[in-house]
Amino acid sequence: MKALWCVSLVGAALPLLAQEAGVEAVSENPKTLQWNGGGDFRVRQEIYDRLPGTVGNISKYNNYFRMRGRLFGEVKNEDFTLYARVVDEFREYVRDMGHRYGKTPGELVLDNLYLDLNNTLWDRVDWRIGRQDLGYGKGRVIWEGNPMDGSRSFASDAVRATVKFDDKNTLDVFGLYNSDKTFSLGRAQPYGGGDYLPLNCLEPWAEGLAEWGGGLYFKSKQWDALPFELYYIYANKSTYHLLNGTKMQGRQLSTWGLRAMPQITDTLSAEIEAATQYGEKDSGAVVGGQMGYAGLTYKMPLESTFQPYSTLSVLYMSGDRNRGTGRMGDTESDRAWDPLWARYTFFESEMYVYRGIYGVGYWSNLIYPSLTLGCKFETSQGRHEIFTQGGPMFAAVRDVVPTAPSSTMGGGDGSLYGWFWRARYDFPLLTGLIKGDDKKHGKLFGHITAEILEPGDYCTSSKTAYFLRWEVSIAF
């Protein structure tokens, strides 16, 4: 409870400081130190039921509140920035599956702590060193460094150097290391026992997984009509243990990819991303896969604050009919797509559509064509966005349960995961609650979202799965 009190007390004091000092001290001399501080507090209620899992298993009814508080502070001038942020997320349950994951008061975690060094090496290289939110593109290969704790933290322990060739071309060179543990104050009891809330794992509640790697990420806006990105990423995943003590082998793999965003006309644009990967397990068995995305977006040519749009897209991730068990000594190859550090809801879904089949947030073996219809519009309080998205989800291949080859992973006898539909509305509520130069401070905003999955013949279950959430946040 002490960690929660600390967040509350400091959170109460910072808005007063912001009102008095305008949040940020501003100086005309770029060499003079400036400071900035603030935070945010988010309340969510999430309700879901009947999410499909391995071999016909489905989740039971869950209804709970998630409260996340974050505080940040920074010191900077034109040459450097030192930034720190702490976070505590805890839950209160109305009804759950029988465990109390992340119950009050949670644990205070060092979410970000990094140093920026600007314009080094002949003004060509910027550095970011330390725990940071590391993401690229639309997040299909790198975005979430700690997938097990949901949206509490997205951080990776990393070093990143951005080489600036000119105003339109940059190259990021980075290395990262992510463990399943972190420094924290307090204790959040996880499901299945243990003395900490795991940050990083593949199988639910597995322990001991460490992931490290690095890569090159080139971004170019040389041609206004065809910005593009090229990347190479190396990933190394250590051995780890399941909850029952079974030891799982690690793997190493390399990923090459291309992302392009052509602007076809004033109203028509596209996005294309393709990647391939190759490597091996500790046993020497081959691993690798392919990922592809293609989307076409139309925005109506209206010169107003009302901006409707539509996107037709398809997402592909390769699968493998028999990918093996992954246990020590397993020599079965695995040609399914490995999502690297993108084990989160990067294609607009909060629902674990095939929950627990491949692991926590482990998106693989999927073909998903979808249509999105939405609009953005402005009011005196800020920008609103509402959209709906849906389509059929297919398994790229009909895969089998490694320990029971006569049964498919989803339990059914087909390749259709199901028909998936989602709607979301993001909206501002109030602005200007705290005086300051930064418009983000003193802003109250929220969203509501609903998702439905009608299971197909890939799943044994025929019961409709759903996910509901509302959220309100304040930034100060």
Description of the molecule:
This protein is globular. The model is unreliable at 1-27 and 188-195 (pLDDT under 50). The longest helix is centred in the first third of the chain and has 20 residues, at 2-21. It contains 2 helices and 23 strands. It starts with a helix and ends with a strand. The protein has helices at residues 2-21, 120-123; strands at residues 34-49, 62-76, 80-95, 107-119, 125-133, 155-164, 169-178, 184-186, 211-220, 228-237, 240-241, 247-248, 251-260, 268-281, 286-299, 307-317, 366-379, 382-394, 400-401, 404-408, 416-430, 443-455, 465-475. The strands form 3 sheets. The chain has an 18-stranded antiparallel β-barrel. It has a two-stranded antiparallel ribbon with strand order 11-12. A two-stranded antiparallel ribbon has the order 19-20. With 476 residues, the chain is mainly beta.
